[in-house]
Prior knowledge:
Number of domains: 2
Largest sheet: 8 strands, mixed
Strand content: 15-25%
Oligomer: single chain
Order of helices and strands: HHEEHEEEEEEEEEHEHEHEEH
Number of strands: 15
CATH architecture of the largest domain: 2-Layer Sandwich
CATH class of the largest domain: Alpha Beta
Shape: globular
Structural class: alpha+beta
CATH topology of the largest domain: Fructose-1,6-Bisphosphatase, Chain A, domain 1
CATH superfamily of the largest domain: Fructose-1,6-Bisphosphatase, subunit A, domain 1
Bound molecules: 2,5-anhydro-1,6-di-O-phosphono-D-mannitol, magnesium ion
Strand order of the largest sheet: 4-3-5-6-7-8-9-10
Amino acid sequence: MKAGASYQIVTLNEFIINRQAEHPEARGDLSRLLHHIGIAAKIVNKKINKAGLVDILGAAGAVNVQGEDVKKLDVFANDHFIAAVKASGEVCAIASEENQEILILDDGLSRDGHYIFCMDPLDGSSNIEVNVSVGTIFSIYRRVTPGGERPDLSDFLQPGLRQVAAGYVIYGSSTMLVYTTGNGVDGFTLDPGIGEFCLSHPDIQTPENGRIYSINEGNYVHFPPGVKRYIKYCQEIDPQSSRPYTSRYIGSLVSDFHRNLLHGGIFIYPETQASPEGKLRLLYECNPIAYIAEHAGGRATNGSQRTLEQVPESLHQRVPFYVGSSAMVDKVHEFLRLSEAP
Ligand code: AHM
Ligand code: MG
């Protein structure tokens, strides 16, 4: 480096501290929790990078609460994110895709923790065996039960609008952590050389319109008529609106959403015959992704209602999910409405 040359690296921890300093009233609780999430993300990233080398692939021999095979890495990610959240001392209870019931943290500091934590520790895990990107999705709420008392389901059945932070980690060609506390969406790329998440995508804004549609078209015959018509619309030739659009579907929500967030696009997982309520889970998949989408200028709905306004009825509730560039979500709504009209 030339004498006097300067570099401008902002690490995740530095960023969190700077943000906290902007709020003199903040006690640092959320900052501590985010810091620990960053540590868990690095540990899980390391393990995923080695997935092809050591015997950690394949089913762990158990079935999760959704009746799906639990892969060993799912268990690893679940354990490490739980440990990180516990270590922060700020969270009194956790909901995870991998656990049927909420996990109550009633030891030490955690009992008085102000927050509850929801997560999908390893989303898209069926993709690991073929080296496709997977992710962790998380969501943080303030508890509603009084501090010191035993947290219960009511702490978790809050509409997504009440999230205080949400984010995801994408373990891809590079590993990124993207999160928001409701004040802009920022992305950090893990620099393996120094082992730090570094600010690489400050204040992400998603394009208002896009050219990518992401949906599992193998389920086409089971889609609602409005979705079928929207797909045909995406495939029509219309140079003025840059159609036909491009179809991209990885089958890993975090990766599909992340690409569309940066380039503009729409991700749809509607209700189908096999999944009449949709496939994706409201608490730890749709709500955090919806919160990020909205704070980046996008939209997220269940086809008619804003995802963040839905009041959850159960921990593992599934909902249809339409998320992405606002103009594209509005357009698919038009088709859904038209199809319902008598
Ligand atoms: P998972 O949490 O069990 O990994 O399932 C969720 C995944 C999402 O990442 C992805 O968008 C979707 O399931 C893909 O489902 P499908 O294979 O039905 O298209
Ligand atoms: Mg998932």
